[in-house]
Design a protein that fits this description.
There is one protein chain. By secondary structure, the protein is an alpha/beta fold. It has helices at about 65-80, 85-100, 110-125, 130-135, 175-195, 215-230, 265-280, 295-305, 320-330, 340, 345-355, 375-380, 395-410, and strands spanning about 5-15, 20-25, 30-35, 145-150, 165-170, 240, 250, 255, 260-265, 280-285, 310, 335, 360-365, 385-390. The chain has an eight-stranded mixed barrel with strand order 4-5-6-10-11-12-13-14, surrounded by five helices. The radius of gyration is 21 Å and the shape is globular. It binds 2-phosphoglycolic acid and zinc ion. Zinc ion binds near residues 244 and 312.
């Protein structure tokens, strides 16, 4: 009864107003799974390929009509008749049908849509929530959120070189309390930005995007907002960064254009170490560029024992790339983005690889999102302990927080720790 009978797909809009793929998978028993595919802006070079039409007359070239046609054509043919409960077989059929190492022929956006919709259809057929259907051999638990309250880099129209300044309510006893603390700090920050004459417009992930030029400026405001909300920095609420350093690594150096300085690899590492000494920062994602592996190693050797160093662009959710990091000793955590690799099976296998090596795992959204909340369920099912899903504003971000609030209500699960 869980045999895949039909695959439908369409173009819908993402949070930036660009088209993206949505897929419906229908099973023989009538069960429906629907999934929408996210999209990044500061994409890693080794990501699976998101197929765009490139027709300048439609959606400024960003249309995904070809990916939709691939989903309902060859990819649908490849999975029709397969058992939706056998996710590995479905994903293997999708990968085979595409036939390229980076899913560039039929599109990772088409493939991922079917992969995720299949899991949702199977969960629906069983009458269980997705997080329960996907449950691994590890204990499920609610993830601790990294809440992005200041946006810069490719996600905002300001000079800030670093992409994300996040808060993690490390002292919160429950997921709901973590969200409450994040919301309070977000609104305190809004007031203090306005009082200082800054604009309070938000960036792509719902965090404020004032005309800051330095990380220190942003961190001073964030720290002050934590304290002014009645929380102890470091104990109640810690800070996490995503500089997204691949975006400003140019000609072998880190070019801080907003700040107006260029730092050598050694100077950039020393600068990050300085930030770690001055602020209660517990985690830095992409502190170094994807092709600066020597820099990654240098920073990991220097700070990795006490700070979570999360590989996003450098790993691209790919188990083989992660394996290289584990073997060579760079980073100590991985960011997991389902569309970087393009199937659920590969995503879960990368999570397992990280786990076995003692690397921490952070489930993540993309800067372009939809109302789809699959990553919330994935975070709980894998028990990975951490989720990064933007600010506590904008429905594309809060949909995930709200889903996790409901899951917490359904279950009495342990809460993630960094
Ligand atoms: P992206 O940004 O989705 O635009 O790649 C998120 C991140 O860098 O973590
Ligand atoms: Zn990142």
């Amino acid at each position: 009864m869980t045999v895949i009978e039909a695959v439908a797909a369409r173009q819908i809009l993402d949070s930036r107003g660009n088209p993206t793929v949505e897929v419906d998978v229908r099973l023989a028993d009538g069960s429906l799974g629907r999934a929408a595919v996210p999209s990044g802006a500061s994409t890693g070079a080794a990501e699976a390929i998101e197929l765009r039409d490139g027709d300048p007359k439609r959606f400024h070239g960003k249309g995904v009509a070809t990916a939709v046609a691939n989903a309902t054509g060859p990819l649908a043919d490849a999975v029709r008749g397969l058992d939706a409960e056998d996710q590995a077989a479905v994903d293997a059929a999708l990968i085979d049908c595409d036939g390229t190492p980076n899913k560039s022929r039929l599109g990772a956006n088409a493939i991922l849509g079917i992969s995720l919709a299949t899991a949702k259809a199977a969960a629906a057929a069983k009458g269980v929530p997705l997080y329960r259907f996907l449950r691994r051999d590890t204990e499920p638990r609610l993830p601790r959120p990294m809440i992005n309250i200041v946006n810069g880099g490719a996600h905002a129209d300001n000079p800030l070189d670093f992409q994300e300044f996040m808060i993690s309510p490390v002292g919160a006893p429950t997921f709901f309390e973590a969200v409450r603390m994040g919301s309070e700090i977000f609104h305190t920050l809004r007031r203090s930005l306005a009082a200082a004459g800054h604009n309070t417009n938000v960036g792509d992930e719902g965090g404020f995007a004032p005309q800051f030029t330095t990380a220190d400026e942003a961190l001073t405001f964030v720290l002050e907002a934590i304290t002014a909300s009645g929380y102890e920095p470091g104990t109640d609420v810690a800070i996490c960064l995503d500089p997204a350093a691949s975006e400003f690594f140019k000609g072998g150096a880190y070019d801080y254009a907003g700040e107006g300085v260029s730092r050598s690899v050694e100077e950039h590492v020393a600068y990050l170490s300085g930030l770690l000494r001055r602020y209660p920062i517990v985690s830095i994602e992409d502190p170094m560029a994807q092709d600066d592996l020597a820099g990654w190693k240098l920073l990991t050797d220097r700070e990795g024992a006490t700070t979570q160093l999360v590989g996003d662009d450098v790993f691209c959710t790919d188990a083989a790339r992660l394996r290289a990091g584990i073997d060579d000793g760079y980073a100590n955590a991985i960011l997991i983005k389902v569309n970087q690799v393009g199937t659920l099976t590969e995503t879960l296998s990368t999570v397992d690889t990280a786990r076995r090596a003692g690397y921490r795992v952070v489930m993540s959204h993309r800067s372009g999102e939809t109302e789809d909340t699959t990553i919330a369920d994935l975070a709980v099912a894998t028990g990975c302990g951490q989720i990064k899903t933007g600010s506590v504003s904008r429905s594309d971000r809060t949909a995930k927080y709200n889903r996790l609030i409901r899951i917490e209500e359904e279950l009495n699960l342990p809460f993630g720790r960094i």
